Amino acid sequence: MNAVVLMLVGLATMALGFFFYSKFIAEKIYRLDPNFRTPAHELRDDVDFVPTNKFVLWGHHFTSVAGAAPIVGPAIAVIWGWLPAFLWVTLGTVFFAGIHDFGALWASVRNKGKSIGTLTGTVIGTRARNLFLVVIFLLLLMVNAAFAVVISNLLVANPASVIPTWGAIVVALFIGQAIYRFKVPLLWPSIIGVVVLYALIFVGQSYPITLPESVMGFGPKAQWIILLFAYAGIASLLPVWVLLQPRDYINGLQLFVGLGLMYAATLFFHPTIVAPAMNANVPDGTPGIVPLLFVTIACGAISGFHGLVASGTSSKQLDKETDARFVGYFGAVGEGMLALAAIIACTAGFATLGEWEGVYDKFGSGGVVAFVNGGGNILANGLGLDPGLGSTILSVMAILFAATTMDTGLRLQRYVVQEAAEIVGARPVQQGWVATLVALATCLALAFGAGGDGSGGMVIWPLFGTTNQLLAGLTLCILSVILIKQRRPVWFTAIPLAFLLVMSLLALLVQLGKFYTDQNWLLLGMDIVILIAALWVAFEAIMAMARGAGGEAVPESR
């Protein structure tokens, strides 16, 4: 089949979701109020709580949630065929991710910018909150430690991406000063910033950078991981307007341009999808499509990490409550578009079915490499770009997506540490820099304790998809309790909630058996902890729903 058909159907479905379905949700379910005083104004401190232009905030939100996962997940899941991956990405974006991300942002804004973990205590109970914080901390640990490995691998494999990756930080610092300190209108910093970022890609092609083979016993990958965590720690402590927000915004524009190039190349090249719609000849050892499809593709269809970003940073920067629809729902659409591009690159970027099967010879193969190589071929044939340049553009895209998720993720992990410290009364740890050091220490301990080259973050990565989807289901539990208490229709969150919890718990049980067979006691123990915590929180949420349905209606926050 022509990949253009897949592209047009997918983009049209997501567009309809944003323009019609999200409008219905905003008006009839979440009932956004343009006069509601958001936490960004009520609690403004110009560090975390900062009223922000909705386009800038969308850039922060979109690039923070769209890490490497919406590329990696679909790029692995197409081993079952392109059709299941396509359906889950498009329908998941419209009916699952959009409702979840939008809802987490709305709920947090209505509760003084509380994170979804803290909100659990208010809505369900303190026991559920404490268990939820455990799941959240483990998920953030997985994201931060694993994404550092993904980025370092890409920087080592493609030295031409080093200058544009780190140059983006300098560009962001200038943009932050221009917009907030010198009050320059948004248009010109946006245009100049994107031009400079793409110019840096050409500079990187001419001046590739590699690190020394060994520094104090650390190889290039380990060196990059240490540098990445040092950057993320500093970025997580700076006021959001200095680096995090402008970096995410300008990266969002650049990445949207990159997606535009990818879709334009598809339109001009008309590549044929060589992968089967339903793969009846999957390699030996490939697990069953149900439930594994729905946790292999997490980001790009629905992701619990999005709820952490929406309630952890985005809700503290929302200028008007009505902006939540654009930031939350359209942020999910942006990630769905990236996942769709990954499906096209990994199924239509190969010359023949045999070449595709040579890459997808076992479960877990493909990934970022398939996206970069397949997408590079489409860019070369559709737009006439040099294949090396096309691969560099896509590598930089993947790195910037992962990097913006990592620095936001460490900031969120700092919040979780501070919340936990408040619960147990550890006052020193409630300080921002102390909590950041604790977060960094746990990430580095995992990275280097389980792998001398810093790759230890990948050890617990097999649990990411299931943990992520469980977190999304539990977030939908909280939204459902709130809607029930306020006597609003709950089906729009309850149906995705039920589906996600069933698929995620089934996936945890499947993985439990595999970890036991492989005698992987670390993952087996973590699987059991996550399973118990999730079941407990879900049970408490169901009880809260029952109490909410039988009690008096709770008035809306004002």
From TrEMBL:
It is found in: Cell membrane. InterPro entries: CstA (IPR051605), CstA_N (IPR003706). GO terms for cellular component: plasma membrane. Keywords: Cell membrane, Membrane, Transmembrane, Transmembrane helix. The keyword Membrane applies. It is a multi-pass membrane protein. This is Carbon starvation protein A.
